[in-house]
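The instructor's notes for this session suggest beginning with a concrete chain rather than abstract definitions. Hand out the sequence below and ask the class to guess, before any prediction is shown, which regions might be ordered.
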Amino acid sequence: QEFLKDAKTVDEALRVNQELANIEAQIEQIKGRMNYLTDRSAFSTITITLEPEFPILTPTPSPTPKPTATPVPWKPADTFNDAKGTVTVVYQGIANFLIWLVVVILPIVLPPALILWAMWKLLTRKPKGARSDQ
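After discussion, reveal the predicted structure:
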């Protein structure tokens, strides 16, 4: 109605009225289309298929296995040399023990042992003039 008041001539009023009628028709057409789509979507079925996105795995090389060691054959000469070395070490240990015995133990034990032996000899000695009655 405001547009009609602004019109100066009847021709302008008719054009405004015609334009308003066209716009109202477009609005009604759009509303009808909206109602149609609303009704259609109410009875529609939507099917969705979801598939997970798997990560792309880059192949990693497997470690190269270590080769098994070749078994060492029996070597009697090596066994003999090992035994000879062990006997040498044992004899060296015995010699070391005897050296320690002479250097450390005998100076500590020998003087008291000699004193005790001398006292025992003096106490068990027979007088020179005594005879045995046999």
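Then share the key points. The longest helix spans residues 76-124. The helical segments are 2-6, 10-42, 76-124.
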